[in-house]
Please model this.
Amino acid sequence: MIAKFNYKLFGLEPRDLRVYEAMLTFDQAASIRTIAELVKINRGTTFEIIKKLTNTGLVGSFYRNKRKYYAAQPPESLQKYADYKHNQVAEQLGNIEAYVKSLQSRKRREEPDQFTQFYDGEDEIATLLRDVLETVEISKDKTYRVISSAQIRNQMYAKFRNFTTQRIKRGIFARVIAIGKEGEEAALSERRLLSTKQSPACYVIVYGTKVAQISLSEIGGLQGVIVNNAGVAHLQELVFDNLWESLNS
Model:
């Protein structure tokens, strides 16, 4: 069975759920050896999985003739564990807020605001893309502008495959100028083609008071930078909008 929730938030892996689901089919408590044979995982690994499931309340242990046996607890136990984790986080929100405020009070006021931030690799580029959605979502103008290069378009979203789905869900509109080849059509977006002959390995996103530039390094990895400056962003908007109007829709 494919679990349609983010089980990793609970420290679980697919094989953990596979063991638990298999144990639900047992009529009675079973030994580590029996469980390992059923799921075809070595005993040592099975033991570690059972220990993890026990900590989450999904498995209980019992002694019979001085030997330890394990049995799956009702599936409702996962909901109870989720409620427990939720309450833990809720209890800490106030502490986190107080801690953040204490750190803000330590910041040296004479330091200027950070102007640029750098990102390296697909995981960090995914963080950059999340910033695009989060920034535009709370902006008055829920539109961002993109100069999209076919050369890096697919690679850029490798660790954020549902970016477009999230964008549409948040009601964010994208205006895209494509270079090299037009991307796929999607809701809440408008595209125009600049050129099919050239495709520089660079991607530009103008959003809010920020401009993000993403490109390929010499070894083919993704690198990005966000410039957070209202003047720079406004200038890039003007350049983009004039170029947009000059292109055929």
Notes: The chain has a mean pLDDT of 87. The chain is about 45% helix and 25% strand. The helical segments are 14-23, 32-39, 43-55, 76-106, 122-137, 153-156, 163-169, 230-246.
